[in-house]
Each structure stands twice: as C-alpha cells, then as structure tokens.
Design brief:
The complex is a heterodimer. Chain A contains 13 helices and five strands. By secondary structure, chain A is mainly α. Classes of the chains: A mainly alpha, B mainly alpha.
C-alpha cells in the first residue's frame, strides 16, 4: 500500500547498486501508488463532504438504534424493536442457513450427476448431460424467479400436496415433521459429535498400528460404541424426548413441524440445482483425470469395485476436484445474496433495508463486504487445509 | 451406480472391430451395449424411460396440446381457465416487443433490433480464428460507435433517445460487451501487475482482485447505484446505466485478471529469458512475446468467464435497470397477463440459453482443437 515499505531496505544500497532499472521500478511504483492514493483521497473527501451536507453521521453508532424492520423468516428470536446489530446477526444466520445447507445438498446432487454423466448407460449419461447444459446456460437469477413463481403457483395450504404423510407442499412453503429440540437433545447431539471426533482420532491410531504390524483392525465396534452407544446412554440418562411432531392443518395454516418458507425453499432449490450442474462437471473431469491404468492395475489385483473407487480412484480424483470445488462453494455463498430478489432476508437484503432506512450506505456495504470476506476466508481456509491433507505426498 | 470406467475413454459406443458375438443388427447391438449392458443398467433404463415418458407427456400436454397460442386483445379469460393445464403462449406475441426492447419508442424499435444484430455479427466475426488480427480492434471500435449512434440517435435524421428509455436485449448485450471490452485490458494490466516484481504495484493489484472477488456482485451493484453519487463532487451526476456499467467493468477486470494470470504462469520461463536477452523493454516483451502465448493458453476458460459474465448481467434487475430479465419481469405486471409469468420466463430463458449455449459450444470446440494440436 505505501511506498515506504519497498524503498526502506533499498535505501542502504542506494549508493552502490541501484541501477537504472531499479530506479525506473521505483518511479513506477511511486506514480501508480500516487495515482491510487489520489483517486481514493478524492472520492473520500467527496464522500465526507456529501455526507455532512446530507447530515448523515459516519460510523457504526447506528447499529445500536432500533431497527424497526420486520423479519419474517428467522431462527433467532427477533422483533422489530431490536437494534440493527441484532437484525444483522439474524441476516448473517439466514445467509449461513442457505449457504451451508446449499453447499451440502449441491455437493451430494452434483456428485451423483457427475457420476451419472460417466455412466455406461447411454440414457442416464445423456440425461445428466442435458441437466448440466440446461442449468449452466441460464442465469441463476432467472432460475430463482422461475422457482419462486412456481412456488407461488402451488395450491393454498388447505389443498396442499401431500407426497408422503406429514410432508406438505403448498404456497406457504414446504412443511416437514420435526423433533422439538430441548436442552437434553442438544446434549445428546454434543455427545454424538464428541463420539465422532474420538472415532476420528482412534481411526488414525488404528491405521498407524495396522501399518506397523500388518494386522487388520476393525473400526466398526468402536464406531458402534462411540457414535451410537454414547449418545444413547446420554439420552437415557437425561430423559431426552425424541417424539416427532407432525404438522397439522388448522384453519388456513400449519401448526407444528418445520416450515421452510417459499422464499427460502425457492432460493435453496435454485442455488442447489444451479451449483450442482457445475459440481457435476468438476466431478466428471476429476474422475476422468485419473489415468485408466489405475483402474486396470486395481482390477488386476482383484480388488472389489467399491474398494477401487473408494481407495484408489476417488482419492486421486479429489486432488483435481478440490480446488475448483472450493470456487463453487464460494460462488454459492456469494450467489445466496440473490435472496433479495425474492424477499428472503439474508444479510445483503437486511443491510439494504438498513441502508434505505438510515442512509448509512458506506457502513452497510462495508458490513456486507466484511461478512462475505469472512465467510470466503473461512471456506478457503477449510478447503486449503483439506486440500493439503489429501495432497500427493511424494517421497 | 453403473460402471464408471467404460464410457468416457472410448469415443465409440462399442468396439466395432470386435468380431460379432452378439446377434442382431447395428441397432440391437447398440442397444445392448449402451442401454441393456447389465441387469442394473437395464433396470436404470426402464425406470428412466418410464419417468421420462411421464414427464415428456405432461410437458407436451401443457406446452402444445392444451396450450393457447393467441387471444384477441387482452381477453385472457380462455388462458385463465386452462391455467396449470395448458400454457398461454399468447403472452409472447403480446409482449415480445416490450421484453426485447423495453420502453424504447415503438416506431424506432428497428434501431435496437439492428443493434442486437450488429452485436451478434461482431461476436461471430470475433470468434473466427482467421479474423484474429489487428484490424479486429478497428472493427470493434467501428461497431461500438455504430451501436452508440443507433441507440442514442440525434444525428443522421435519427431522433434522440435518452438512456432511461433503453431496455431489453440491447441493454443486456451492451452491459456484457462493454463490460468485457473494457474489463479485458484492465484484466491484462492487473494480471501483469500481480506478477510484477514491484511490491507496491503487486499488492495494489492483489487488493483489488481479492476485494472484488470476495464480495457478491450485488453488493458492487448496490455500491454503484447507492454509493457512487456519494463519492462524486457536487453537480456531477452520472447516469444509472453508466454507473452499473462501471461496476461491471471493475468486476470483469478482477475475474479476467485471474484467468489471464493463469495463462501468464503457463508461459515457460525461457520465453522471458529469451525476450530479455534480445533486449526488449518490459512492454515489448509482454506485448509481443508473453501475452500472445498466455492468452492463447486460456481461451477456453476465458470463454467460460464470458458466459458467466453474460449471465451475471441479469443481476441489474435488483437495482432496477431495464435489461432483458427486468423487462420480462415488468411485462407481467400488467394485471391481464400476470398469471403467465412461467411462459414469459421460459421465453427469456431460451434467449439466454441460445447465447450461452453458442458460447459454451464454441469453447468446447476450442478445447478440442487445443487437444489435437
């Protein structure tokens, strides 16, 4: 950013070794940085002037004021009387809710379609190809509006479609049976997560020991104890209830169950189907990048198909798949901001409302940027870590 | 799932050189090899045929059999009575002028139509390898000038049409083409800057690219529509379309820079050394030796970026600029036609699809060429 960093270490050498090229380089940097600073300074002084002319105070003090904006679809307790900061947190949770679930579903669907694309069954691979081509070549926003219109065209709650008992699809969205989560349930889930982590550590040790002495050690008894037994014990001990509440139609709306609002549902479908088309292509080219000889060699050893796929082909394909997959995850997260077009209140939509109400444009957009840069950084770090873990270790 | 290893590596559906073991003609053998190779495969085929048949049947019923192709005036009663059973394609002839050209004066709409054709001709010419010469730049300049004249008018007897009356397909094409035309040189400069040995320039370029790529395009567009006026001195008022265009140029620049940087990395070190040994200056070295090779390396990903960018122009809907998608969405505000948005969206989707599909076909052709050479 500043010119002082580059020329400090060079100053000592100035008398001896600063040749013509280096001087030109230094001049270039001074000129370019000077222009950049001048532009930013010009814009900034204009902004300060304009803001004071419009009597808009700069700074994030407005976050403490009452938001007064209704948010329909939220997982956190929220009322319009809450301050802006609360509204922003609700928005961030809403963004994450779409992004995380969307990434998981898109990965699953995309992988399936990518594999279908490579199937020896002509019809299946053709259909997968059509799916990919169709979804990739139409703007996501158009697809989103399309899904939303279809969602609104569904029958009213009273005439809701019931594909399976307890699941309702209507213009109120998708209603699913749910399990009410109390404190005891959370402890059980925590126990299961702890069990999974323990199992993960254990697996590494078992693999290490197996590699040392060559004896086959089975993991599944431990898995049974840690992931099933432990949570079951905690559940019994705390008396957690796992009764499923079925949604019921009362009057014009549903009571009980988990409701996915039409806005959320349309956004999720659009993001998942659109991204899955790209993921399918990544998975396909990843698998194709594994040389044919790897299959042949594994077959020659007499290994089972599923084993070949799991232990030989996929680990090699993953190395090709992970970097572009990371990009798709980032894209999905950024694309979730299209929510504003259908009125799902994600962080961009809430920041936009806040911007219109308070006029704090710079702060609102800085918040959006901060949130997305943080999420992007988080996904990048995780995927880089994973990539490094599966990377080829050459001896 | 079915066998993964079979299909991809073998371009022919089955091994034609193999002596005939399976009885039957070509069709039967093809069917056996590709649809009924195993029990699982046969099962998948049967299930897919049943599902596909059902889906196609209901689609054909909705789209053709029960569809209504025209209604007199705004009398959409017949359409309303078959809602959900048949499509109301009558909405397309009624609204297509508005969808394609927005609120451009009706009797002058041949001008935006000509603009669209000019764009398509320009894309076509630019895609031919034999046209990749210096003169192409001149052609582009001429074509873009012609487009400006046609859209604005005001000279040669054409009445002036101000920017806020532009709409539909020309706006989409303008946003995409100008965004790329100006974003491309910007991307080249930034890509070179990111690989420069000068730390201040390098970090400036990294900052620019990562900032733009790190945030959603929508926030950039909000910035262009809401914050841009704040950053301007008093009295300077830039048109909304131009503001969005600037946001798109900055956006395209950052994404193209990353693609071009990939190409720069693929140019072997020896090319740099050789150019240095000849005593070429930095700009000559890059302009004559490095960049031509680098860009040739990344033409397919560049075309993919173009496709993504073309689709992304539809986001201007959110800041209320009348591109193709916005005019489509606006055309069904009309109460008489409100229930038939699905038909309108399908129509617009087809237009977007044709453009993107042509580009993706082209990019695949280039990839195949690159593999063969």
């Amino acid at each position: 950013m500043t010119t002082s960093t580059p020329d400090l270490p060079r100053r000592r050498r100035l008398r001896f070794s600063l040749n013509r090229q280096q001087i030109i380089g230094l001049l270039w940097q001074v000129v370019v940085v000077g222009i950049a600073v001048a532009i930013v300074g010009f814009l900034w002084s204009n902004a300060l002037h304009n803001l004071s002319a419009r009597r808009i105070s700069t700074g994030f003090a407005f976050l403490g004021r009452e938001a007064g904006m209704p948010i329909a679809d939220t997982w956190l307790a929220y009322s319009p009387k809450d301050p802006y900061v609360r509204a922003f947190i609700v928005g961030i949770v809403n963004t994450l809710r779409v992004a995380v679930i969307g990434i998981v579903l898109a990965t699953v669907l995309g992988t399936l379609i990518g594999i279908a694309r490579l199937s020896s069954n002509w019809l299946l691979s053709r259909l997968a190809a059509i799916y990919v081509e169709l979804l990739r070549d139409i703007p996501l926003l158009l697809q989103l509006l399309f899904w939303y219109v279809l969602m609104q065209g569904l029958p009213a709650a009273r005439a809701a479609w019931k594909p399976i008992e307890g699941i309702f699809l209507s213009n109120r969205g998708l209603v699913l049976p749910s399990i009410p989560i109390a404190e005891a349930n959370l402890w059980v889930i925590a126990a299961m997560v702890a069990g999974l982590i323990a199992l993960f550590v254990l697996r590494r040790q078992l693999t290490a020991r197996q590699e040392a002495d060559g004896k086959v050690r089975h993991l599944w008894p431990y898995a049974l104890v840690l992931v099933v037994g432990l949570p079951a014990l905690v559940s019994l001990g705390l008396g957690a209830s796992w009764t499923v509440t079925m949604p019921e139609l009362r009057g014009f709306n549903f009571v009980g169950g988990l409701t996915l609002a039409p806005e959320y549902f349309a956004l999720l479908i659009a993001l998942v189907t659109y991204t899955s088309a790209f993921i399918a292509e990544i998975v396909r080219s990843g698998i194709q990048a594994v040389p044919r000889g790897q299959w042949d060699a594994a077959n020659a050893l007499g290994l089972r198909r599923s084993f070949v796929l799991q232990r030989i082909v996929l680990p090699q394909a993953l190395r090709v798949i992970i970097p572009p997959m990371t990009n798709q995850y980032l894209n999905l997260t950024k694309n979730s901001s299209l929510a504003v077009a259908v009125g799902y209140q994600d962080v961009v939509s809430i920041a936009n409302t806040a911007l219109n109400q308070t006029g704090q444009a710079i702060e609102a957009i800085a918040l959006i940027m901060m949130v997305f840069l943080t999420i992007s950084l988080g996904i990048s770090l995780f995927m880089n870590w994973y990539n490094a873990r599966i990377a080829l270790v050459e001896r | 799932m079915t066998s993964i290893s079979e299909a991809p590596q073998n371009p022919l559906p089955f091994d034609t050189a193999r002596p005939r073991k399976v009885p039957g003609g070509y069709v039967i053998r093809w069917l056996r090899a590709n649809l009924f190779a195993s029990v699982t495969s046969s099962l998948i085929t049967v299930i897919l045929i049943v599902l596909l048949g059902k889906a196609l049947l209901s689609l054909v019923q909705w789209g053709f059999w029960n569809a209504i192709w025209s209604v007199p005036g705004d009398q959409t009663g017949a359409c309303r009575s078959i809602r959900g059973i048949g499509a109301c394609w009558a909405v397309i002839p009624e609204k297509y002028r508005f969808i394609l050209f927005g609120t451009y004066p009706f009797d002058q709409q041949w001008r935006p139509a000509l603009v669209c054709l000019t764009f398509i001709a320009l894309f076509f010419v630019s895609s031919r390898r034999s046209w990749w010469r210096k003169e192409l730049v001149l052609l582009w300049a001429a074509a873009l000038a012609l487009i400006g004249v046609l859209m604005w008018g005001g000279i040669a007897g054409l009445p002036f049409v101000s920017q806020d009356r532009w709409g539909g397909l020309p706006v989409t094409l303008i946003l995409a083409t100008f965004g790329l035309a100006f974003g491309f040189p910007l991307g080249i400069v930034v890509a070179l800057g990111r690989r420069s040995k000068l730390p201040a320039i390098r970090s400036l370029c990294v900052l620019y690219v990562e900032l733009i790529r790190g945030v959603p395009l929508i926030s950039l567009l909000f910035m262009a529509s809401v914050m841009f006026p704040l950053f301007m001195p008093d009295g300077v008022n830039i048109d909304k379309l131009l503001r969005a265009q600037i946001a798109f140029v900055l956006f395209a620049g950052a994404y193209l820079a990353e693609v071009i940087r990939g190409g720069l990395q693929a140019v072997p070190r020896g090319q740099h050394d050789a150019a240095d040994a000849l005593g070429l200056s930095y700009w000559k070295k890059n302009g004559l030796i490095i960049l031509p090779q680098a860009i040739r390396h990344v033409i397919p990903p560049l075309v993919n970026t173009f496709i993504a960018f073309f689709k992304d122009t539809s986001l201007v809907l959110i800041i209320g600029i009348f591109d193709l998608l916005t005019t489509a969405k606006t055309s069904i505000i009309d109460p008489a036609w409100q229930p038939f948005s699905v038909e309108v969206y399908l129509f617009v989707a087809l237009i977007y699809f044709l453009f993107c599909f042509a580009m993706s076909r082209y990019s695949r052709g280039l990839e195949a060429q690159a593999r063969h050479s």
